[in-house]
Amino acid sequence: MSEGHVRKLVSSVDIRARIKACEKLAEAFGKVVKSVLVGEEPRLIIPKRTLSNTIYDKERGLLLLGPSTFERNFLDVRESKKFMQTLLMAKIIYEALMNNEYPTIRDLFYRGKHSIRYRDHKGRIEEENTWDEQKESDAVLRDIEVYVNLLREEMLILSKEKGKVVGDMRIKSGDDIIDLSKMGHGAYAIEPTPDLIEFIDVNAEFVLVVEKDAVFQQLHRAGFWRKYKAILITSAGQPDRATRRFVRRLNEELRLPIYILTDADPYGWYIYSVFKIGSITLSYESERLATPKAKFLGVSMTDIFGDEKKKPYLSETERRNFIIRAKKADIKRAQELLNYEWFKTEKWVKEINVFLAKQSKLEIEALTGKGLYFLTDTYIPTKIQTQDFIE
Amino acid sequence: MSEGHVRKLVSSVDIRARIKACEKLAEAFGKVVKSVLVGEEPRLIIPKRTLSNTIYDKERGLLLLGPSTFERNFLDVRESKKFMQTLLMAKIIYEALMNNEYPTIRDLFYRGKHSIRYRDHKGRIEEENTWDEQKESDAVLRDIEVYVNLLREEMLILSKEKGKVVGDMRIKSGDDIIDLSKMGHGAYAIEPTPDLIEFIDVNAEFVLVVEKDAVFQQLHRAGFWRKYKAILITSAGQPDRATRRFVRRLNEELRLPIYILTDADPYGWYIYSVFKIGSITLSYESERLATPKAKFLGVSMTDIFGDEKKKPYLSETERRNFIIRAKKADIKRAQELLNYEWFKTEKWVKEINVFLAKQSKLEIEALTGKGLYFLTDTYIPTKIQTQDFIE
After folding, report:
1. What residues form DSSP beta bridges with A264?
2. What is the pLDDT of residues B169-217, one digit of tens each?
3. Which of A1, A100, A186 sits opposite B168 (nearest CB)?
4. How many angstroms separate the CA of residue A224 from the nearest CA in chain B?
5. B299-328 pLDDT, tens per residue?
6. Which domain range does residue B114 map to?
7. Is the domain of A241 the same as that of A197?
């Protein structure tokens, strides 16, 4: 394969991303350098990532950081260690960008981990570690993300990824054009930096995200996406950042409706919530990663039990065989979800209350247990066609 | 995309696989039907999956099932339930094959789960469940795998998959030809039935399997496989069956050497062991899934500490910063590994004993912490070139 020899090892897309990130880092931290040069006290003004500064924007359906900021001053003895940690992390990231590297957050922890020897005010030699635990370096990295206004992926910091996709769609990733309809029985594993993907063309009417990889495999193999013109995605459990960003872009840029299919239990609802709203403690990510218009397709409590207007998809016998009794942790989780702003809609309150009354949950596999083609040709198409989803 | 319309939903490869599996099932269980028709006692003669019938074949380096079998008789009251479970499972699998379905093991559990009502010898109505837990249906499925001599993948039973691959290689999966060197920054997610993959052509000198997905992402992005003519694979932790089978086929059919890169700890060694030998409790899989010639590239204890002949890759300071103290569970695990036949080689005994003496472990990320290009251009190539691996 002669092409391998003439081809660059690293893609041109990455090189452009590096330059952009370096410029933004240099600008943000250049301010600190300048203040030192003119004899001012070095300090950082960083948006607060606290719960009290997290706002649920009802109109946009997003969790956002509020306007509060805090100062981190080098000359304040309570803040000087954190200040130095922040600058150490910024330096490591900048160097990695310049050296064509792709660190992970674990690498960043190791790269910065060392002991600093110094003399205290009485002349004694002391030692202090930069950090001991990854949660310290991770916290500093998050500060830098909000301070510079760059997600870590934009700084070419990589992480493990579980998300997969197939569908009638072409994308450009790195220097390659990839046809997501030509993956055979396998799938395309989404890259850790989905903002660098270019959508070339798409022939699909909606996106179906399934929680479970094994169900994704079945739908793929049965030709579901081909027959129903879907982009088929799995998050393989709790979605990672790349899968969330990829789904958001499909919705925002290609205007494709997003349907999410999980088990009928609080864990499944939470997966939906992470796609739709994001995580409460990391609200700064949500503006880029959340998909407020994502719809919960099922499996819903009315799918199982029906209601005054709807016939259930399960018979009495199937319910007896398939339903799993909810555990205490499920009940507790469901009660917590009732407190979230975005679960305070009529349909969600009803859904959660039926769950609490019946104390029953159901796996998607109970539906494929009724036959794979029941899932692909009855359940999913009917749910979409009758708009039987929860928002 | 007009092609989508003329194209079959399901691949021709799958159709052929279905026919083969149906024939083998019909042949194996046809014997039982015949015995009923001629008035003989229905029974199954099944290879024993017990530890005492598991043999380590030193020459081939494989765990194999021994020659012992057991009988399961319908007319023996202690065995009749198991006998009926086995036939129920065989029926479900056969029907799924005929109906073009792709069940998972969880589906199979749901499909078979129901209550049977009958009258006992005193005429009272009794109820008995076919099975209550998935471990019951899984055990029966394993019996069928060894009885029919078909792995479940060959019966088109799917499962979740984590393995990914990139490299200068073309494969055929389903009806598509896929170029694994054109995956952009993403990767090809290996299908659950890797026996159905056809290798078209390959331009590589070795296979590097990395335990950690995030390290895979880094090596991929840095162009490692292109520069060193490697097929790059991640198992994303404990390898699943599909990844193991795929690696085995690369070794057996394409004669590519397999190098496995994990953290330096008993968990990493166990991952290596699963690739090389398979799992002790599921030895019947090993004959198809294990890669006896797989080599443990590192990270090894001598990489960290050196020995009389070798300079370590880490300095004294790096060791101080990067090494993690082993936990009690690590020590216990290491002592267990010493009892496995295939760890009783000179190099492995030394490796494990150094670990037990130093009580130290190291993550791969400690090496990328030294710089990504240290890993790609110094550590891995030197280890391979000097044959500094453990078998």
Report:
1. A362
2. 999 999 999 999 999 999 999 999 999 999 999 999 999 999 999 999 9
3. A1
4. 8
5. 999 999 999 999 999 999 999 999 999 999
6. 10-155
7. yes
